[in-house]
Amino acid sequence: MMADDLELTARRRRLAPEARREQIVDAAVCYFAEVGLAGTTRDLAKRAGITQALLYQYFRSKADLLEAVFARVYLDRMAPHWPAVLTDRCRPLRERMLSFYAEYTAAIFTYEWMRIFMAAGLAGEALNRRYLEHVRDVLLAPLMDEVRAAARGAAQPDMEDLWNLHGSIVYLGIRRHIYHLPTPDDVMPVIERAIDRFLAGFAIGGAP
């Protein structure tokens, strides 16, 4: 083994346990985004420059590792203040929705988020269902209440209306990172128009 390899190996051995765990999760996010969730821990360990045995010292199973990936990619990007942004009636509803979706799309419109989300869905993983249930309960349900409170016409939104809006916005990221189709560099004008159409459907004032 060459001196550079020995030095690299020594540095890897000196990593503190928490730093080592973070290194493995970082590598797993990149790996599963590229190859899908069918990728093996053996190949992941090789890419991370560690042994499979060392990986299993930190994660008892591939399922445990995927839980850590789920937390990193999905839950860690969910800002705790988003529900407050959506329900702050001191601000116009349109302004609140634009603020939220500007932050939300900035958080999820990444190669890793989109690729892992699609791979997990195709694999039938419960991770996606848990995330979507979280989005529904923490974000979309409060937003539906706000739209109902602001609606001036007889029409009242249901959860399917909220999912239609949300899904159309997320699809911009899918087109960009999954299908590699052209999307605007700045997606906010597209999102503004989608929100204005949504609000108009319930007789709520849109753009000033």
Outline:
The chain is mainly α.
Q: Would you give an account of this structure?
A:
The protein is mainly alpha-helical. It contains eleven helices and no strands. The chain has helices spanning 3-13, 17-35, 41-48, 52-58, 62-73, 82-87, 93-108, 111-122, 126-150, 159-177, 188-200. Helix 2 (17-35) crosses helix 5, helix 7 (93-108) crosses helix 11 and helix 9 packs across helix 10. It is elongated and about 60 Å long. The termini are far apart. Mean pLDDT is 91; it is low at 1-11.
Amino-to-carboxy terminus distance: 68 Å
| Biggest sheet character | none
Give me the number of helical elements. Answer: 11
Can you count the beta strands? Answer: 0
Q: What structural class results from the helix and strand content?
A: mainly alpha
